[in-house]
């Protein structure tokens, strides 16, 4: 059996080295598309959608996302968005593994999604020579992620959740709750999905 490529390891959530030629080339291509996206205006919706497609971002074609520039991501092809997603200025998604965003999700400015992680052992971590890994992030439908919130890898956020501004979400969030703080904790339970 052939040894896995670094990209195959990355997508499988295993330790991988991110500076190999394949992944480096893909990040460079993504950065080129992101730079082009970040120079567009609201008067160029088709150009914006074409650049999102070029990045490989999967989205609902009947109700595509509205992403305010500047926006940044690592690869793009690991991002899936439902209908009516809105991202305010300066959102960043380090999509080294799947990032799934539901429908009708709103992001405040400066929201950061961080799937990558590094070994805690500094000898294994080894700076630029060491490996990293990724853990997926899932955000359910009808969520509001407040400005400057950070969501770490391995987190699943249920439907109808509000994440307070500046929160750092380190573990799963149950549906229909409001969370805030660092680390984020439940502040309020909501009544549930409206009819």
UniProtKB/TrEMBL annotation:
Keywords: Acyltransferase, Transferase. PROSITE patterns: HEXAPEP_TRANSFERASES. Residues 7-61 form the Maltose/galactoside acetyltransferase domain. SUPFAM superfamilies: Trimeric LpxA-like enzymes. Pfam families: Hexapep_2, Mac. GO terms for molecular function: acetyltransferase activity; O-acyltransferase activity. It comes from the Eukaryota. Belongs to the transferase hexapeptide repeat family. PANTHER family: ACETYLTRANSFERASE C18B11.09C-RELATED, SIALIC ACID SYNTHASE-RELATED. This is Maltose/galactoside acetyltransferase domain-containing protein. It comes from [Myrmecia] bisecta. The lineage of its organism: Eukaryota, Viridiplantae, Chlorophyta, core chlorophytes, Trebouxiophyceae.
């Amino acid at each position: 059996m052939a040894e896995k490529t670094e990209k195959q390891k990355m997508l499988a959530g295993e330790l991988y080295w991110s500076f190999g030629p394949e992944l480096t080339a893909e990040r460079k291509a993504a950065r080129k598309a992101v730079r082009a996206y970040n120079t567009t205006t609201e008067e160029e919706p088709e150009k914006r959608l074409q650049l999102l497609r070029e990045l490989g971002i999967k989205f609902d074609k009947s109700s595509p996302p509205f992403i305010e520039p500047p926006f940044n991501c690592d690869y793009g092809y690991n991002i899936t968005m439902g209908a009516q997603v809105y991202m305010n200025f300066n959102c960043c998604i380090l999509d080294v593994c799947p990032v799934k965003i539901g429908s009708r999700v709103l992001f405040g400015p400066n929201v950061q999604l961080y799937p990558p992680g590094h070994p805690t052992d500094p000898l294994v971590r080894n700076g630029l020579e060491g490996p990293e890994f990724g853990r997926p992030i899932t955000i359910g439908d009808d969520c509001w992620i407040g400005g400057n919130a950070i969501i770490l890898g391995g987190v699943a956020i249920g439907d109808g959740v509000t994440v307070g501004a500046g929160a750092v979400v380190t573990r799963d969030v149950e549906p229909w709750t409001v969370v805030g703080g660092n680390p984020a904790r439940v502040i309020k339970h909501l009544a549930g999905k409206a009819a």
